[in-house]
Specification:
This protein has seven helices and six strands; from the N terminus they run H-H-E-H-E-H-E-H-H-E-E-E-H. Helices cover 35% and strands 9% of the residues. It binds iron/sulfur cluster (SF4).
């Protein structure tokens, strides 16, 4: 394994194995202690992201937090970002799509290309989410996410600490990898965390407004994402291991 942080590469395998059995707060403390301001939480302010943020703020109130504003987020998510800023007294770093790239896509394919084909949906995710994220990660040594193994098949194999080969061999930290959805909500309620009000309207996973709908009882929790697509992973490309060929146009 290779890692950008000097001295870490030879121990990374042991660290990954060691931290698989550790609590979420221990995993976060390791990441923040090791990488300091070269580590940041990446969140779209879904339920899992709120838990990670809360745990991290208890360890380091100055923790860096960033989000990608695709320009198509629900009003409820924008409203939550401001509530989070007030609640924790933190700055939220907001990053945007490249305006030239975005204008080119909209000019060529229209404002809502995602409903027309999987290929165009993936193009939109690439322009509005994946490329901005890639630019942020170029300046980080570690990013911290709210991924859980039980969220979907495509996430079933995540480790709490990973070498992120898709983003220049930086470290990806998934402290909630072994948490259940129930545990996430128990934490949110017990600690009275702010959360996205769309959850109270039947949403189970929240992304961009035109690509997210509520789910029915018993439906897959990510069924409301790109609900018109069949046989395609419910992923935008940010977390999918594209080098494994799991998602291609
Ligand atoms: Fe575009 Fe929908 Fe992807 Fe958002 S979720 S970036 S609107 S395709």
């Amino acid at each position: 394994m290779v890692c950008q942080k000097p001295g870490l590469d030879t121990h990374l395998s042991q660290i990954i194995a060691e931290y698989e059995d550790k609590k979420a707060e221990d995993v976060i403390a390791w990441a923040l202690g090791t990488f300091q301001r070269r580590a940041a939480i990446c969140t779209s302010f879904q339920a899992e992201g709120m838990v990670v943020l809360d745990l991290a703020c208890r360890i380091d109130p100055g923790v860096r937090v960033f989000t990608i504003d695709t320009g198509r987020l629900p009003q409820e998510t924008y409203e939550l970002i401001d509530r989070v800023r007030d609640h924790y007294g933190i700055d939220v770093e907001v990053y945007y799509p490249d305006q030239k790239e975005l204008a080119q896509m909209v000019t060529q394919h229209g404002i809502n290309p995602f409903y027309r084909s999987v290929s165009l949906r993936l193009l939109c995710c690439e322009v509005r989410k994946v490329n901005p994220l890639n630019r942020v990660l170029q300046n980080l040594d570690a990013w911290i996410t709210g991924l859980r193994r039980s969220q979907s098949q495509t996430r079933a194999g995540v480790y709490k600490i990973e070498l992120d080969e898709d983003h220049g061999n930086i470290i990806k930290v998934n402290p909630l990898a072994d948490w259940s959805e129930q545990r996430v909500w128990e934490y949110i309620r017990a600690n009275q965390l702010p959360y996205n009000r769309l959850y109270d309207q039947g949403y189970a996973s929240i992304g961009c407004a035109p690509c997210t709908r509520p789910v029915a009882p018993g439906e897959d929790r990510r069924a409301g994402r790109w609900w018109w697509e069949n046989g395609v992973p419910k992923e935008c490309g940010i977390h999918l291991r594209t080098h494994q060929g799991a998602l291609s146009r």
